[in-house]
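=== Discrete structure encoding ===
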Amino acid sequence: METATRPPLTAKDFATDQEVRWCPGCGDYSILAQVQKVMPTLGLPREDIVIISGIGCSSRFPYYMNTYGMHSIHGRATAIASGLKAARPELSVWIVSGDGDSMSIGGNHTIHLLRRNFDVNLLVFNNQIYGLTKGQYSPTSEKNKVTKSTPFGSIDHPFNPLALAVGADATFIARSMDRDPKHLQQVLIRSHQHKGASFVEIYQNCNIFNDAAFEMFTEKSTKADEALFLEHGKPLVYGASQNRGIRIDGMKPVVVELGGDVGVSDLWVHDERDLYKAQALIRMFDDPKTEGHFPRPFGVFYETDRPCYEDVMAMQIEETISSKGKSNLDKLLRGREVWEIAG
């Protein structure tokens, strides 16, 4: 008996009949559109895709995706996704979270998801503010940020989300932005293709409570000079006329002007498998308003291979089951710390 061939899916197939309730102009609209465009290209049926979110503006995402999904509790989307992936490893699991949801109350769950290396995709929408609760500063807000909860300016040192990810040994680390649709689509596809925990930070504009937070990297007039787009095997070149680059001076990256004695062949060539250079790129996190600052990198910083938690767990269970009676439940429950007292 022949199986009926399913018609190819389109972006519209991933949209629901729910009214999208974000503020007009919010960057979440663009991210949603790019995810819906990418999903049909993955070759997966909708019933094999799950979107799990926590609490925040971004966390309404599952309502707008015609897949399975769960709007869970604050900071716990990563924990719930871990349980789902362990039980149903064949599913494509996507976690949608904000900078407050994943870096504050959910910070502990985030680092353990990454170190365990579940094969899931964690999308962190970073707008450097708490949008849903009306504009308090967040763990990624810059110093001296004046908000409702910090009327005299924040004195907290902000998180660099990618530095947190590399510290937790994430096996895929990338950054993109809401206002560069093509780049975001490419990063989402790479995230899906990676076998392991993918950490993708997405700069997302909150035009109500933190408008233009990333305008230096998104506006046409400044983007070329402030954003450095990483490509594996390509030299680090940027600038409106591709006139600048990054060179390694000893152990330290430096910005150079191309021309004269400095050519493209002298520049740092990006290698996604080089952990040490990836950490240097991640630390290019200067305030773009300061003199002599580095450009902000975007793209895939680092990718490596490591066994996934759910695979190792399944292997351990299989080995236990196939031990042909060698396992003894009473012995297992008794544990190893057993003493025999001589009479």
